[in-house]
Design a protein that fits this description.
Blueprint: E1 3-6, H1 15-28, E2 34-37, H2 43-47, H3 60-65, E3 74-75, E4 81-83, H4 92-96, H5 100-112, E5 121-124, H6 131-139, E6 142-148, H7 151-166, H8 168-171, E7 176-184, H9 189-202, E8 206-212, H10 215-219, H11 227-230, H12 235-249
Parallel strand pairs: 1-5, 1-6, 2-4, 2-5, 6-7, 7-8
Antiparallel strand pairs: 3-4
């Protein structure tokens, strides 16, 4: 089954929104996805209502106490299965170093516990390049890179491409990736300019589907719901339905 990390080195581009809503849609279709929250801010865990009360009840417990990943899974009200984050995850870099052993540890746990055998795994990465975000990349077979339609996000996309290229000698292959345009506003010239530049630079690796700037997508986290619970007929919900259909059709989500 597919393992996807949702990552960009710039914040505020829609990583958590994308992880949450793709996972929620997969769950609604009986795919039983597992979501791993790799961001110490824990926004995804909070939205799902599974915020860890202690650090060792979160993903940090896997690193700190070697707690099995499977025992850290919490079930959200919606039924979505989540391994939650905690602020103490920010200590992983300083406490456990940056060598290959720590970077492979998440992948090893997923494989050892067969967490990916019958379900897709989606990982919500933090925006900084470090042990946690790289662990997500090392544990994934695909990377989905959301890019909001502003020039700083475009720079972040170029940074991401350089990072992934630098890792190719480690993976011995080109890691499959897709760039996703988010917060797209048809009324703004900048949105069209960024979209055009991305397609000129990255070609077929840019998703045909764009995620529109949408009030329902912005509002749903406040109600601790995914967009399909909050506003199933909204443009945001329709966009994520179209995105999943595209990613399944081209084999990016299997």
């Amino acid at each position: 089954m597919t393992r996807i990390t949702v990552f960009n080195q710039k914040g505020g581009v829609g990583k958590t929104t994308t992880t949450l809503n793709l996972a929620a849609l997969l769950a609604r279709r009986g795919r039983d996805p597992l979501v791993i929250d790799l961001d110490p801010q824990g926004h995804l865990s909070g939205i799902c209502g599974v915020a860890a009360e202690t650090s060792d009840a979160s993903l940090y417990g896997y690193y700190n106490l070697s707690t099995p990943l499977g025992s850290l899974i919490r079930v959200a009200r919606s039924g979505l299965k989540v391994i939650p984050s905690h602020l103490d995850l920010a200590k992983v870099d300083s406490r456990y170093g940056r060598g290959p052993d720590i970077l492979h540890r998440l992948n090893q746990g997923i494989v050892r516990e067969n967490l990916n055998t019958h379900r897709p795994v989606l990982m919500d990465s933090c925006p900084m390049l470090g042990v946690l975000s790289l662990s997500g990349v090392f544990a994934a077979d695909r990377v989905l890179i959301p890019i909001s339609t502003d020039y700083l996000a475009m720079k972040g996309a170029v940074q991401m491409e350089r990072t992934l290229r630098a890792l190719e000698h480690v993976f011995k292959r080109r890691l499959d990736r897709r760039y996703l345009v988010t917060r797209f506003d048809t009324r703004r010239r900048m949105s069209w300019d960024i979209d055009r530049q991305l397609r000129e630079r990255f070609g077929a690796e840019v998703c045909e589907t764009r995620i529109s700037e949408n009030v329902s997508l912005a509002e749903s986290p406040a109600s601790e719901r995914d967009v399909f619970e909050h506003a199933p007929e909204s443009r945001g919900a329709k966009d994520y339905e179209a995105l999943l259909a595209e990613l399944e059709a081209n084999g990016f989500v299997g």
